[in-house]
Amino acid sequence: MTESPALALDDIVVDYERRGLEPVRAVAGASLAVGRGQIVGLVGESGCGKSTLARAAVGMVAPVSGTIRFEGQEVRPLTRRARPRELARLQMVFQNPFSSLNPRRRVGEQIGGALSVLGVASRAKRRARVAELLERVGMPAGAVRGYPHEFSGGQRQRIAIARALAPSPSVIVLDEPLASLDASAQAQIANLLVELSRDLGLSLLLISHDLAIVRHVADVVAVMYLGVMVETAPTRALWEQPLHPYTEALIGAVPHADGEGFLPEALPGEVPDPARPPSGCRFHPRCPYAFERCPRDEPELVPVAERREAACWLQGAGSAGPPAERAARLARGERVE
């Protein structure tokens, strides 16, 4: 019997209302699963819906349709009422530690506050737990008395992670947690996340636009484009043999130490307006392999190999588009020049 995922998002649709205008569909039927003890990286260009999906996963954004389950329990949008205690084990870390921490409260108070809500009434037990959490994320015990402005960006993100760890979560969703940090701090926090997942059995959903970081951290990568998933695969397999042209383009856009590679802005065309997405495959206006079916029909995310899914007509049997040899090579995950 297959073990159920720790966090499962099924066919999530999220709209943003606009006064006097049609809503913008930020997420257009995305599905994603995070296995127990697994690190899943969710990647894509800015504006593709990654952060919206992350917020929906923890109940901060209400989906129009679809279901979200955490350890089998449905995750509903947050309200004024208390969050169910069972969902306290589903936590989130935000992109900017400069704004996610309260500047007027000491570090120890912010971490200990979650313990109070969970019923840890003893002040001595809270102090001991806060000290343990700070040590766990590599912060000195004296940090408990400090205010957020007294620490560097990397240290603040460690504090934010310690706060998320306070309820002993099983899943943490991290929305671009490294984006506002310098390269050294990014590497340190990335290594910390791997260590926490391994040592505590944590499941992590890491949202990032940085494929190099995700390659280092994640077990599985999901690729999102304009509100939909276009590919999911184990990290090494995806990196070595991307099956979707967008994934191939993203990997090609990662700069190399030898100076090769190009920036994401060099991808052909521009990201379409999510309020007016292209017909058919949403990537087809920028795809070098597009053929007549691509602008007509939208492909679904389907299994194409062991533990791999892709939403691309080149992966379907009997495709009558490009030369059969090129389609077959792409289906095997080979690069096509």
Structural account:
With 337 residues, this protein is α/β, with parallel strands linked by helices. The protein has helices spanning 50-57, 97-100, 107-117, 123-136, 153-165, 183-200, 211-217, 235-240, 245-252, 324-331; strands at 7-18, 21-34, 39-43, 65-70, 73-74, 90-93, 171-175, 203-208, 220-225, 228-234, 302-305, 308-310. The strands form two sheets. The protein has an eight-stranded mixed sheet with strand order 6-7-8-3-9-10-12-11, sandwiched between helices. Strands 2-1-4-5 form a four-stranded antiparallel sheet. Helix 3 (107-117) runs parallel beside helix 5 (153-165) and helix 4 (123-136) packs across helix 5. It is globular. The protein starts with 6 loop residues before the first strand and ends in a 6-residue tail after the last helix. Residues 261-265 and 317-328 have low confidence and may be disordered.
Query: On the 0-100 scale, what is the average pLDDT?
Result: 86
Oligomer: single chain
- DSSP summary, beta strand count: 12
The amount of beta strand, in percent, is 15-25%
Spans where pLDDT lies below 50 across 5 or more residues: 261-265, 317-328
What is the gyration radius calculated from CA atoms? 21 Å
Number of helices: 10
How far apart are the termini? 42 Å
Q: What composes the largest sheet?
A: 8 strands, mixed
Order of helices and strands: EEEHEEEHHHHEHEHEEHHEEH
The strand line-up of the biggest sheet is: 6-7-8-3-9-10-12-11
Q: What global shape is seen? A: globular
- Structural classification: alpha/beta
Percent range of helical residues: 25-40%
